[in-house]
Structures are given as structure tokens and as C-alpha cells.
Amino acid sequence: MDRIGLRDALSFDVLGPVRVRRGRSEIEPGTRQQRLILALLLIRAGDAVSVAELVDLLWESDPPPSAVNVVHRHVGLLRRRFEPGLPTRAAGSVLIRDGAEYRLRIDGESLDLLRFRRLVAEAAKSSGEPAVALYRDALALWRDRVASDLRTGDRVHPDFVAVDRERFGAVRAATDAALRAGCAHLVLPAIRLAAEYEPLDEALQAGLLQALAADGRRVEALAAYADIEHRLAAELGIRPGFDLRAARDRLLGHDGPAEGSGSGSVGPALAGSAAPRDGTKAGADRPAFVRPGAPPGGTTAGSWTSAGPEPSRPVRAEPPAQLPADHPFFIGRRAAVAAAEELLAADPQATALLVDGMPGVGKTTFAVHLAHRLAARYPGGQLHADLRGFDAGGSVMTPAEALRGFLWSLGVAPAAIPAEPPAQASLYRSILAERRTLILLDNCRDWGQIRDLLPGPGGSLVIATSRRRIAGGGVPAVAHPIHLDLLTEVESRELLVRRLGEAATADRAAVNEIIARCGRLPLALALVATRSVGRAALGLPVVAAELAEADGRLTGFGEAHADLEAVFSWSYRALTPAAARLFRLLPLHPTGELSTEAAAALGGLSLRAARDLLAELGAQLLVQPGDGRWRMHDLVRAYAVELGEEHDGTAERDAVERVHDDDEPSAYATDSPPARRIRDAPHRHR
């Protein structure tokens, strides 16, 4: 009986993507809204959550009149996932309602958050290496930020942020305990990860420096300090605070070169590798890592006199090599690669290749691959920046931020970088005029964001990616567009074979079904392949069947459907409210393509307004024009369906009625999943 109970016991994870398991089998938590409800219930760890809080969680503003009923329906669906045999209106024993509140009945071992808190509490009561081991075990429970698969909006719920802070507090406590016990190596991976998540948290960064030094990695610690110093200057315009400077000074107080450092130098120069002999504080006036032409730490730019070149000119440093690694499973795109190389051969003055394509089509992967192919032609090195043009948190990188980072990478001291963006751009172009450099700009929002990052004459090249077409009168003739389309059937099959090996060659029918359900979209195929590797015992036929049973919805991708939602949402959030509304209505049309007139009928719009909004959707590459009609990829369509169900109420029936009245009856002959749902639903007729 006990074995049966253990086998059927529910367990939950929220320290990362939200997961639910019954024994060893994973349970799909449902739609995004259902997973959000579950995440908040898990974070409360058995405490109550009011319906009002859940409404606020699901709708940032202006919840629909049916919001409370929608919450109750989602809770009911969650209940039946946890207890499959539960009658429709039964209370259940896991997700419990108490008046206008809900809570989960959960114990300390069935939720990773409660296990984390227990281990941290035990560690705080212990000392020495046993305490460090407990901290290590607690931090190992974290797979990402809290509910990381649900962070696609512009705001993060305060409860999510509070639990993230618990993690970082535990990291600081673990660092102190490990340094006292002399076993920093036990928690160094957790410290590194936390420092990556919070790059501007000076206390965390200081702890990382101390842990690296304690583990015999002083050179790496000094390089990390230089990176932190630059980031603080570039993003906040400040110098490191007391904790960071104290950590640096302790690093510089060691005699002799650091272990594994060879000559003891890092980058262009390493200052203060030995303690001063005049009794002054170690490293008080010297930086850990000196960019060429940079003033010493603790010295203002105005009081510093360099023995080298003027600070307004860069010192020639080692060429930067900032390209991300090429994708090990890159396939296809032969025509696009050939087109890029032909453009460069035909136009020696070309300064930019502008790569666009719909969300998930593989723009970044292609651009990185192309950059690696071309890198040898650019001896001045390679620069890279993610411009975060469609970032979920709204932290779009400005051209000035990118220019400061590039100038620093090219050898200009932070104090010598001009304050005004036009002067920064002028200095940047002047440097690139003397160096053939390759610049990769990922995730660009528009032409205005990259205009000042283009080099002048001199042979340098920008490769830029964007999920919208970068066009306009300001785009020069030396900037050439490259549009990425979906993979071909052959390339799609090759992608699955490269990732799955023999499993993808043994069952051609299952592979064909997967390719069809993914719509030849590289991201969707890659997510299915990754999910299949983790469930190898089930086989591809089961994966194909799950996609088919989902009937055109993203939930067929399991937990990976959150990744698809996130990628599509970046383009959706860039729309105006009117275009976003039309996007949600387009799936109500029963075919995979529609005319401008049909779109106008769906939205109750004039032809001119519909034409303008469709053009906006087309600019974001959420729809594609062709032969006087507009097409939407099946997975984008599925995403729009989910958005419509979450945000629109009676508009759906009204829109379908308008389609009945205004569109051709033959349009309903299609058998696509969204069309079936609309066609088979009850309609009103005038």
C-alpha cells in the first residue's frame, strides 16, 4: 500500500519552470493561465490565494466581466489534472476552495520550495563543512528563476521576486559559510549562477570574487572584477562600491602570480600582483584589470596622465572575439548562406546584412553561423551585442549603450569615451575605418536602433537580425536584406535526424507528422527533438500522436509550449492595441489565409483601417502577404487562438457572425483544426 501511495503521490516544482509529477510521470499543467494560477499557489506553499489576486495575476488591466468565472474554470481543470477521476463540481483533496480563496494541500517533501527552505534553515543552524553541504543541496534545487517559463510579460509578480530574493540571500550565506570553512569549491557553481542572474548585485559579485580566489582562481577573479567594473560604468554610470573594491584589494594583496596564470598577467595588463612594500593599502590606487588607455582605479580621468597614447585614441589591443559559439546542429540554409556571400561579392562596399524572419525561424542561429563562416575575412576581430529589441522586461539597449560597450572592447578607456552619442558614433567609425571588423547585432527593433552602429568606409560589416522587416527611406543601399523562410521538408527532416539519430530514420511516418504539426518552423522542431530526447522510451510515434491530439494547439508541445509562447509574445507585445486585437481575431476566419475584406469584417473595420493593421502585422512578420491575401503560420495562429480565449469575450461570436455574413461560404470547406472548432460551434444567423 505504501509503495502504491509513493507511486501515485503528487510532487511540484516551482524553482524554475513549473512542473507537476505523479510518481515518476510528468503531468501537463495546462495553459499559460492555468500554470500561472498553479505557480502562485505553489509559491504560497499551502497558504491561501484569493480569487481577486488570481484575477490580477491573469489580467494586467481591464479584466473581462467573466474573469472570476474564468478563474474558477481554470481551477476546476487543474483539480481534474491532479485527481483525474474527480467529478466536475467536486471539491477535491489537493486544490481546495475556502470561500473566495484557494490553496494547495501540500507537504514539505512534495514541493521543491519547501525543501529549499528546510535545508537553508538547517544550514543556518549548522557550521563548518556540513553547513556548506546543506547550502549546496538547497541551491541545487534551483533550475532557473521562479516560474521561469511564465515570465513573458512586462511585470513580475511580487511573490515571484520575493522567492528569488530568498535564493540570493541563501547564496550570500553559503558564500560566507564556505569561506569560513575553507571549502568554497562546494558552492562555487551556485555562486556563479546567481552572479550571472544578478550582474549588478555588488554583494553577490564580491562573494564570487572571494570564492574564485579561495578556489585558487585569482586570475579569473581579477578578470571578473574588470567585467563588473565595466558593466557598472556602462549600465549605471557608477564605480564599484566598497564591498567590490575591498574584494579586489584582497585579491591584489597576494604575493606572486596566481595559480594557473602562467606569467600572472590577464589581458593587456594586470596591476598589483604583489603587495606594496611601502605600507600602503594593497591595490588602493590600481585596478585589477586595465583596459588599454584606462586610468588607474581610484584615479579620476582629469588627474591621470598616461605615459602612452592620448586617452582619446585607443591603444591597439588584441582583436575582440565575441561571437557566440556556432550551433552544433546547424543544418540547411544553404541558399541563404550563398545569397549572403553573393551579395558581399557583388557589392564590396556593403556594410550590413539585415536578416529578418518570423518568430522562431532561426535568425540568430543563422546569423551566428554566417558570422563564423565570414570571420576569417575580418582580421580586426568580431563584436557582438544583443540589442534586446523585443525584450520582455522592456530593457531595450540604446545605441549609446551598445557604442560604449563596443568602444571599450576596441580599446578605448571608459573615461575617454565621449559623453554624447554622436561623438561616440564618430569615434567608433574612425576606429573601424582602420580595422576590418565583423559586428553581429542580434534582436534589433528597428533601423533607428542600429543606424549609428553601422561602420563607415573601411571594409567592416554588420550582420543584424530582427523579427520585423527593417525598411524605410533611411536604410542605405549598402545595407542588404536577407529574408529567412521556413525550412524545406528535406531540411526539417535533416534537423530531426541530426538531433535524434536513428530514431528519426526508423519511423518516417511519425517524422512526417511531426514536421507537419511543427509547420517546418525550426524552433518548434528543435523543441520537439529536445523533448523527445528526454523521453526516449516513449518513441516518436507517441510524440507525433500528442501533437495530433492537441488539434492545432500549442499544448501539444508539452512544457515546451511555454517557449513557443514566449518567442511569439515578443512580437505580439510590439503591436499597437488595435493591431493586437485584429491578430487575436484572425484565427476566427476558417481558412489559413484571408483577404483584406475578410479581415475588415472580422474586426468590424473599414478597409483602410484593416489594410493599415495588416501591414503592421506584416511588418512584425506575424502574417505574410501573397496574391492579394494574408497568411498566418499554423503555430502563430494557435498562439493567437489562445490569446483570444484569454482576452476576448463575446467578440468571438460577433466576429464569426460577421464572417458568415460577409465572407464567401466556400471558405468553410477547409478542415484545419481552428476551422473545425469554429465551423462546429453553434452560430447565430440573422
TrEMBL record:
Sequence similarity: Belongs to the AfsR/DnrI/RedD regulatory family.
Chain intervals with Low complexity compositional bias: 297-309
Keyword line: DNA-binding, Transcription, Transcription regulation
Positions of the UniProt region annotated as Disordered: 253-326, 647-686
A Pfam family it matches: BTAD
Biological process per Gene Ontology, one example term: phosphorelay signal transduction system
Cited InterPro entries: AfsR-DnrI-RedD_regulator (IPR051677), BTAD (IPR005158), OmpR/PhoB-type_DNA-bd (IPR001867), P-loop_NTPase (IPR027417), Sig_transdc_resp-reg_C-effctor (IPR016032), TPR-like_helical_dom_sf (IPR011990), WH-like_DNA-bd_sf (IPR036388)
Domain annotation OmpR/PhoB-type: ranges: 2-106
DNA-binding region: 2-106
Annotated organism of origin: Micromonospora musae
Protein name: AfsR/SARP family transcriptional regulator
Amino acid composition bias (Basic and acidic residues), ranges on this chain: 647-661, 677-686
Example GO molecular function: DNA binding
